[in-house]
Design goal:
Layout: H1 2-14, H2 22-38, E1 55-58, E2 76-79, H3 81-84, H4 90-104, H5 163-179, E3 183-186, H6 196-206, E4 211-215, H7 222-228, E5 235-238, H8 244-249, E6 252-256, H9 257-267, H10 276-281
Parallel strand pairs: 3-6, 4-5, 4-6
Antiparallel strand pairs: 1-2
Helix pairs in contact: 4-5, 6-7
């Protein structure tokens, strides 16, 4: 046993551990770093910024031309493609529509629980001896005139939606009307008379039934606002009060020049556009 132990120790002594000096490890590290620094790495590829082409839309004949308004024949409006040529996203339109409809719910439904119903709290009959079911007070939900179990209470049905999602929904809604050829642009929305009868004839002559008119003015024109109120399926709204639900609810959409400028100012993206001078030279 002792000889075997000595033999094992001798075998262990014959294979000593090799200890490399620290200077050798440092020298190899410096060589590797020099090799890495000498290798030429190409610069990362630059991502090309997409360039979009502006959209052109002919002017729609206005109700009445104002002073300085251009004639509709031969004139077009240049539209920003980042606002009026957004890819169609049905899910975004659904989110924005549900978000607006949720905000309209009053949430005022209210029922009384058994603790809120007026009446005595005395037990109706003894617990035992009558042969009938056990009952407590008269406000029990099992009895007629008692409280309501799990009934509705006043609550807030409004939901939250990120601001950028709402902006994207507006771009998608405007783009849908543009792609379906249901978008028109007038130089201005004016009407000199407040009579509804004359405005109805003018709208039928232009073929603009079931249309939402959007103006970029802070307050719509008084004559047009008064005359259009009594016309069903035709509405006039300011640009800062329009949402996705209003755009999708109406069949057609007509903007004035200031409304187009408002939407492009609040909804556009930082994407370069092809200059009009280059488009004219093509």
């Amino acid at each position: 046993m002792l000889s075997r132990a000595i033999g094992s120790t001798s075998r262990l002594a014959l294979t000593p551990a090799v200890a490399y000096p620290c200077s050798a490890r440092l020298s190899t590290a410096t060589v590797a770093s020099k090799l890495r620094s000498s290798i030429h790495h190409p610069p990362p590829p630059k991502q090309a910024t997409p360039i979009q082409t502006p959209l052109f839309l002919s002017l729609t004949e206005p109700f009445k031309r104002g002073k300085g308004d251009p004639p509709p024949d031969g004139n077009v409006v240049v539209l920003d493609p980042t606002v009026f040529n957004e890819p169609v996203r049905r899910d975004i339109l659904h989110l924005c529509t549900v978000h607006y409809l949720d905000s309209l719910r009053q949430g005022s439904a209210n029922t009384k629980t058994r603790g809120e119903v007026r009446g005595s709290g005395i037990k109706i009959r003894p617990q035992k001896g009558s042969g009938r079911a056990r009952l407590g007070d008269g406000q029990s939900p099992m009895l007629v005139g008692g409280g309501i179990a799990f009934g509705p209470k006043p609550r807030d049905f409004s939901t939250k939606l990120p601001r950028k999602v709402i902006q994207m929904g507006m771009r998608v809604a405007l783009s849908v009307k543009m792609k379906e050829n249901l978008l028109g642009v007038m130089s201005s929305l004016l009407w000199p008379c407040g009579r509804t009868k004359h405005l109805v004839h003018r709208i039928e002559a232009l073929g603009l039934r079931k249309t939402l008119f959007i103006t970029g003015e802070e307050t719509p024109h008084v004559g047009l606002d008064r005359a259009i109120r009594n016309i069903p399926s035709v509405h006039l709204m300011a640009a800062d009060k329009v949402n996705v639900y209003h755009i999708l609810k109406h069949q057609r959409l007509v903007l004035d020049i200031k409304a187009v400028e408002y939407f492009e100012r609040t909804l556009k993206k930082d994407t370069p556009l092809v200059p009009l001078s280059k488009l004219a030279s093509i």
